[in-house]
Amino acid sequence: MPRRFLRLLTRPHVAGPAWWSVVSRLPVYLMSLAMVLVVREQGGSYAQAGLVSALYTLGMALGSPLVARRVDRAGRRGVLLGTGLVYPTALTALVWATGPATPAQLALAVAAGAALPPANACMRSLWARLPLRADERETAYLWEALLTELLVIGAPLMLAVLMAGGSAGLAVTTVAVLGGIGALGLALTPPHPDLAERERSATKEQDTPGGLFGPLRDPVLLALVAVMAGSAVPIGLMTLAIPAFVDRHGTPGHTGLVYACWGIGSAIGALWLGTSQSRRPVHRRFPWLVLAYAVGTALPLFATSETTLALALALGGAPIALVSACEMNLVGAVADSRFLTEAFTWASLATVLGEAVGQQTGGLLVEPIGPHGVFAVAVAAALTTALGAFGCRRLLTQGVTRSLSTAPTS
């Protein structure tokens, strides 16, 4: 797999967008936490910090579909240039020109969330449009899933290193500026020659999916996004159960290390099992991968110490990146090619919503039923999602078949 990733990511007209997108995505996986640290550093309470962070997330949830819709209508260049300038400007003003939870800070938090550069959706829709073989596209989406795990682990570590040499405000400003630079680089990178004409033609189309939810009016994509949201709920539940377990059965300071084993297991699973994924059509193997993920969530039930929990998370997390890669592959396959950026954005929001529901539920349950009880709820949620994935097989088959029949010939 590393050789396949390297061959793909060093190809002409691929290397530039791929690597600029990595830089642009650095703020995605740490900014909510970072803003809590900034408000606390300013002297604010945890309640104020939580409000600012929540409003940033709300702005992202409300703004990102509209930003993605603009990308599909007008092209990615102008949108990335605009958000690449507005995003770091809003966050810099939030850090250095406002106080804890003042009206200006709350407004800037919403604005910054709404202006987050759409690098995730742009890059994933780019993989769907590039003239790649099926196995190369599989590798591309597996890289996206692996990159998510690496950023989830690595971005907070980068924040910690930046804070060690300065303040939380300086760290947030640095990350925001890096994200903006990545967006500008992604915008200014010349597109693939075959892709440039397709994008110009697509932006001239007048028929667009109506209503607030746009491409989600397609029942195939709606069903897939619902499964993606359901798959994220156990992750949110376990995010609360893991530190509670370590508090009771280990050393609280080791929570980060135990939690990291989850991401490491997922990354290793992608590298170890990824080569065998293309042997079956993506819509056929997807429900089985979701079921494997559900089985993996059951392993922490048998943990008795922080060491056994770390091992259970590493083993049980092996299918996570593979499920994520399958989900992205299916979104690219079943969504209308004219609205791919918005489709990928709704898919990402579904995952964020699912995790948020899981975290809220886990927070309510962890005291009365304990961490093992929350682990059990996570297993039940994962198995329910697996049943939903199997129930959607016919719809997904129809969507993939429809996409193949309407795909333009190269």
Descriptive notes:
Helix 11 crosses helix 16 (340-391). Helix content is 79%, strand content 0%. With 410 residues, it is mainly α. It folds into 2 domains: 1-206, Up-down Bundle (Growth Hormone, Chain: A), CATH 1.20.1250; 211-410, Up-down Bundle (Growth Hormone, Chain: A), CATH 1.20.1250.20.
What's the gist of this structure?
The protein has 410 residues and is mainly α. It folds into two domains: 1-206, Up-down Bundle (Growth Hormone, Chain: A), CATH 1.20.1250.20; 211-410, MFS general substrate transporter like domains (Growth Hormone, Chain: A, Up-down Bundle), CATH 1.20.1250. The chain is built from 17 helices and no strands.
Number of helices: 17
CATH architecture of the largest domain: Up-down Bundle
The CATH class name of the largest domain reads: Mainly Alpha
Which structural class fits the helix and strand makeup?
A: mainly alpha
> Unreliable segments (pLDDT under 50, ≥5 consecutive)?
none
Major β-sheet annotation: none
CATH superfamily of the largest domain: MFS general substrate transporter like domains
SSE order, one letter for each helix or strand: HHHHHHHHHHHHHHHHH
Count the domains. 2
- Roughly how much helix do the residues carry, as a percent range? over 70%
In the CATH hierarchy, the third-tier topology of the largest domain is known as Growth Hormone, Chain: A
Q: What global shape is seen?
A: globular
- How far the N terminus sits from the C terminus, by CA atoms, comes to 27 Å
* Mean of residue pLDDT values: 86
Count every beta strand, where a strand is a DSSP E run of 2 or more residues.
0
Determine the strand fraction and express it as a percent band.
Answer: under 5%
Using only CA atoms, what is the Rg? 21 Å
